[in-house]
Every structure is written in structure tokens, then in C-alpha cells.
Amino acid sequence: MEKEKDFANLQMPQIDPKEYESITCDKCGNVAFMPAMILKIIPGLLLGTGAENRILPDQILVCSKCGTVIKKDREYYNLDIDGKPITEKVENKKSDIII
Asked: CA-CA distance, 28 to 67, in Å (whole number)?
């Protein structure tokens, strides 16, 4: 009961969001974003379910005007500005392993 009273007496800082800079879309400059989902296929062997793969949804933010994925989500998922996966080109390289 005392913990509840202590919690009720805590003061939350007064923050006015209008005083801070807004995040803008890298492509069009828009400041409004909306949630979207990115779906990842997780191999069943990793989850211990055998051969059955699972779909893992994860929420990202996209520009409400042009659909560009927000920069932090692009960096996390290694996406280009159009939301497509960035794949590094792997050169054919001879292995040092002798069989």
C-alpha cells in the first residue's frame, strides 16, 4: 500500500512536444508516419518446431505521403530508401579448405 502512495507522489516532467524537432521523411520531407509490418520467416529448426517455419511480424514506420521506410528501421533491417533489402555482392572466391 505504501508503494502505491509513493508512486502516486512522483512528478512527471512537463514536456511540450511542440518545442522539439520533428523527424522528417528522407525522400519527401513529410512529418507524418504510419505503422506498417515487415514479415520475417524464421526456420522451424531454430525454434525447435522441426521443419515448420514461422512468420514473425515486426512493426516499422513508413511515411504517410510517399511510403518511405523511416531511417532507423531501414538501418535496422538493412533496407534501401525504397524499402528493398540491400544485398552485398559476394565475389566468387576460392576456398582454402582441402577435401
From this structure: 10
Instruction: Name the burial class of residue 83, with classes exposed (0-12), middle (13-18) and buried (19+) by CB atoms within 10 angstroms of its CB.
Output: middle
Query: Which residues of the chain form beta strands (DSSP E)?
Result: 33-42, 54-63
- How is the chain split into domains, by residue range? 21-84
Q: Which residue carries 515487415 as its cell?
A: 38
* The three three-digit cell numbers of residue 68, written as one number: 518511405
First to last CA, the chain: 70
Distance CA 86, CA 99 (A): 33
Instruction: Count helices and strands (H / E) in the chain.
Output: 3, 2
The model's pTM is 0.64
For 10-27, the pLDDT digits (tens) are: 777 888 888 999 999 999
